[in-house]
Design goal:
Bound molecules: iron/sulfur cluster
Structural class: alpha/beta
Number of helices: 12
Distance between the termini: 42 Å
Radius of gyration: 22 Å
Shape: elongated
Largest sheet: 10 strands, mixed
Strand order of the largest sheet: 3-4-5-6-9-10-11-12-13-14
Order of helices and strands: EHHHEEEEEEEHEHEHEHHHEHEHEH
């Protein structure tokens, strides 16, 4: 549909520019009868300059900005709350505007500053349907998928909010709420912009997508010319144990998952990451470590051991001695292994603790 200068779409019909790819911007700008190079100018303003409103797209003539503003808007997620941890981590509760009340949602994003870099942990869905038993997000159920703009917007809000203290390197991890490979198209649209040197320009070496093991998604990701690093949330050393804490394992059991990992085309600089949440007395025995070593043999991989964070779920943190013994067994068998203590535990920002306990939407979902 072509818009004349006098066509002003009602607010809820205007499209959001955030998350639009170059091709989508070209289509949009062609409805205004403008040449396609205008799309490149808008793309640059949105992602390289990170403007906040259509009016700030200063590389467009004023009249074109006005015409664009009549059919489109630029809305970042709105910060509903900030929780500051003693270790510098900031946990954001972000409100996502939907066209209708049923589409409104809140998600969480975590900003973790370090000496030479910052890491931003983003969500890809509001809630999650995968139902891992050690994860508070699972208690929400799936509320809805996020759009590409809502996924990218989390990175932009966290960068803007910490603009004064940013370090040279930004890492992004897709490890917040949701299973990224169950919202594949929106996640990949957002990632292409995030990884585009003309977009947000974050290196693929610094972006990690973590999956519970959705094999068709892993196989599809393997064919992408532009993709992040891949992490697998393993958390168990055999099928019986994994079925008990990750019901998704009944659909995609360990053997098939590890076969998909073996077929995954790693780039020369790349390792697969296996995350293993250590649940005290459940999956932290020496025999578990030996089985994990065998499962990942012949894979170029590293293992992140994540001692369980106390939450409102019936698991226990592992003893420090058990964590060290587990690490040593894997290391002695020649695996790269790290113990990752979660950041921001005092503000419930740590791994597996992201649940929107203060969200009215969640109270709906739990009815
Ligand atoms: S660990 Fe990830 S995939 Fe599993 S329920 Fe939580 S958010 Fe979903």
């Amino acid at each position: 549909m072509a818009f004349s200068d006098s066509s002003i779409a009602p607010a809820n019909e205007r499209v959001c520019l955030l998350g639009k790819s170059m091709e989508e911007l070209r289509e949009l700008i062609s409805t205004l009868g403008e040449p396609s190079y205008r799309a490149s100018q808008i793309y640059h303003a949105l992602y390289a300059e990170r403007v906040r409103t259509v009016d700030e797209i200063s590389n467009l003539p004023v009249v074109l900005r006005q015409r664009l503003g009549a059919i489109a808007h630029l809305s970042l997620p709105e910060v509903s709350r900030r929780h500051h941890s003693n270790d510098g981590t900031v946990r954001y509760v972000l409100r996502l505007g939907g066209a209708s009340r049923t589409d409104a949602a809140t998600v969480e994003t975590v900003f973790m500053p370090e000496e030479k870099r910052q890491t931003i942990c983003i969500s890809t869905q509001a809630g999650c349907a995968v139902n891992c038993q050690f994860c508070l997000t699972a208690t929400l159920g799936l509320l809805r998928n996020l759009t590409a703009g809502e996924i990218l917007g989390q990175v932009m809000v966290a960068l803007d909010d910490n603009r004064a203290a940013l370090k040279p390197q930004t890492n992004v991890v897709l490890m917040g709420q949701g299973e990224p490979l169950l919202n594949y198209d929106a996640v990949m649209t957002a990632l292409r912009i995030l990884l585009d040197p003309k977009g947000l320009a974050i290196s693929p070496k610094h972006v990690t997508l973590s999956t519970s093991g959705i094999i068709p998604g892993i196989e599809k990701l393997a064919t992408e010319p532009v993709r992040p690093k891949l992490a697998i949330s393993l958390n168990a050393s055999n099928d019986e144990q994994r079925n008990a804490i990750m019901p998704i394992n009944r659909k995609y059991p360990l053997k098939d998952l590890l076969d998909a990992c073996r077929s995954y085309p790693l780039r020369p600089w790349e390792h697969l990451t296996f995350e293993y949440v250590l649940l005290g007395g459940f999956n932290d025995h020496p025999e578990d470590a030996r089985r994990v070593a065998k499962l990942i043999s012949n894979l170029r991989a590293k293992v992140n051991l994540i001692p369980w964070n106390p939450g409102e779920l019936p698991y226990h943190p592992p003893d420090a001695a058990r964590v060290e013994a587990f690490r040593k067994i894997l290391a002695d068998k020649g695996h790269l292994v790290f113990v990752r203590y979660s950041r921001g535990q005092d503000v419930m920002a740590a791994c597996g603790q992201l649940a929107l306990l203060e969200s009215p939407t969640v109270r709906f979902a739990n009815l």
